[in-house]
Write a structure and sequence with these properties.
Blueprint (H helix, E strand, L loop, with lengths): L4 H25 L2 H56 L5 H84 L2 H11 L6 E5 L2 E2 L8 H9 L6 E2 L6 E3 L3
Parallel strand pairs: 1-4
Antiparallel strand pairs: 1-2, 3-4
Helix pairs in contact: 1-3, 2-3
């Protein structure tokens, strides 16, 4: 294949643009904000789960407190009734003794219920503090997601702007390159390597390797418009005048 040396030199510009596009793509894929956002979103999920657990526990305790309040009220009502009967007239000694025994039992029952209620209320207070902390953590985590998302979007916008400029430059170069030369370049680039490099003294600018003297002699004896390839990496070797 043959191509004017000036045209071949444009491949170096194209390779530089492609290298920059590759760098921008890698940078976009590996923005630190991506990992930070993943961690922040996990923090939100963990905080949300903590809120749900605390809310569930608080709800259970509230129901237990309400149940005990009903039980205590029931005991008090029964005791008030017994006190009224005991204070009334026309009851015998046996009935009075039975009422007093029931009142003693009710008093003990009320004491047990109130002690249990107090313990649950103390636990409910602790769970309430835990719930407040979990909600504050969730709000903080959600704020972090918003903040990191904003930074990520800003970084991606900057990279997109750079990529747009480089893609425009690439399109301009591709437009003026001969189809056969461009196809050769793209074939090499398709292997995931630098497709063109300048020959600098005895080193390939694409793979940076020192080239064999015999091969270098063949390159230097080739015509200026001959398209030659590096014997090591296969990239198009662009020779200076």
């Amino acid at each position: 294949m043959k191509a004017d040396p000036t045209t071949q030199a444009k491949l170096l510009q194209l390779a530089e643009v492609d290298t920059e596009l590759g760098r921008l793509a890698h940078q976009s894929k590996n923005l630190p904000e991506h990992q930070q956002l993943t961690e922040a979103e996990q923090r939100v999920r963990d905080a949300h789960d903590a809120v749900v657990r605390a809310e569930t526990r608080a709800g259970d305790l509230d129901r237990d407190i309400a149940r005990l309040e009903r039980d205590v009220d029931g005991v008090r009502t029964r005791a008030e009734r017994d006190h009224a009967m005991l204070a009334g007239s026309g009851i015998g000694a046996k009935q009075a003794s039975e009422l007093q025994h029931e009142l003693d039992t009710l008093a003990r029952r009320q004491g047990v219920l109130e002690e249990e209620q107090l313990g649950i209320m103390e636990e409910r207070e602790a769970v309430g503090a835990e719930l407040d902390h979990a909600r504050a953590e969730l709000a903080s985590a959600e704020e972090q997601v918003v903040e990191v998302t904003g930074r990520r979007d800003g970084a991606e916008a900057d990279l997109d702007a750079s990529r747009t400029g480089r893609e425009r430059a690439r399109a301009e170069l591709v437009e003026v390159l001969p189809a056969e030369l461009l196809a050769d370049y793209e074939r090499i680039r398709g292997r995931g390597q630098v497709a063109a490099g300048a020959l600098r003294e005895s080193r390939c600018g694409a793979c940076r390797l020192e080239l064999d003297r015999t091969f270098l002699g063949q390159v230097r004896s080739a015509g200026d418009d001959d398209v030659v390839h590096c014997e090591e990496c296969g990239a198009i070797l662009v020779r200076g005048k």
